[in-house]
Fold this sequence. Notes:
The protein is an alpha/beta fold. It is built from 9 helices and 9 strands. It has a single domain (20-279), classed as Alpha-Beta Complex (Spore Coat Polysaccharide Biosynthesis Protein SpsA, Chain A), CATH 3.90.550.10.
Amino acid sequence: MMSLSDRGQQDTASAQPPATPKLSISAIVPAFNEEWGIARCMTETAEALEQLGFRYEVIVIDDGSSDDTLARAQAAAAENPCLRVAGGTHLGKGSALIRGAHSARGELVLFLDADLEVHPRQLEILYRALIDQHADVVIGSKLMRSSRIDYPLKRRILSIGYYLLIRTLFRLPIHDTQTGLKLYRREVLERVAPRLLVKAFAHDLEALVNAHRLGYRIVEAPVVVTRERPFPRIGLLTALHVAWDTAAVWYRTYLLRYYDRAGALVDANLATREQLRARDSIPYPIDE
Length: 288
Ligand SMILES: Nc1nc2c(ncn2[C@@H]2O[C@H](COP(=O)(O)OP(=O)(O)OP(=O)(O)O)[C@@H](O)[C@H]2O)c(=O)[nH]1
Ligand SMILES: [Mg+2]
């Protein structure tokens, strides 16, 4: 089992020149009332990352679930030191992205949904896209020709409609911001996450808009989407919430210019930290 603290020493014994080790990865799983499948999600994600040869951790962010999600996730984590769990009050899925990004220790951060409808085995395709296309962010996309999706017609229409809206409003170089498998270089999230405001809907879009405006390269990779959840949860009301939050992101981006203004402080903070770290004789973090 390779945790994030094993520093890729598996190559040293072989006579061959070592292959470039893969970057380490933190997989973040937002979870809200997922007692039916959270344990399976954690073990299958760990297995997939292990088999793909990553040094990894899996972090479940339970968002104040009212069912047994937290206890089941904690029980699963007790079996494997690479699995971590955090609980908290209910703030919305976007907050899980922000909290997860804050705690991630990997060089890469993978976001995935707890229902495994976009299985983390597919990380290899996203990873190859990241390396081969020199990308900073790779998102799984349902709207690529080679994607295979088991989705009801209503959801497909919503996906295409949302893509047309996003293209018109934001000119993002991608087709599908909503799929539950996204790979970020951690430094992108360090700049993007403190700028984000959306806690519930359209948080994926808000993060990607910010990454794009900061000049990071975002590419897409095809995905296979299966139907695992016994009871679909997305309805018309969710679509209306997403549309509302999307309008708010547009307003903040182009009219209020909130992200540019808030971002100046975020970047100054990060620059200060780097300057101080570069001069410090005390190793970071200070308590290690
Ligand atoms: N932290 C947090 N996570 C949430 C919340 N709502 C949903 N999630 C998680 O977000 C992920 C995606 O949620 P889903 O309900 O599967 O949404 P979806 O895939 O768009 O819709 P389905 O087709 O019904 O699966 C899952 O891991 C959920 O547990 C929330 O309010 N807070
Ligand atoms: Mg789902």
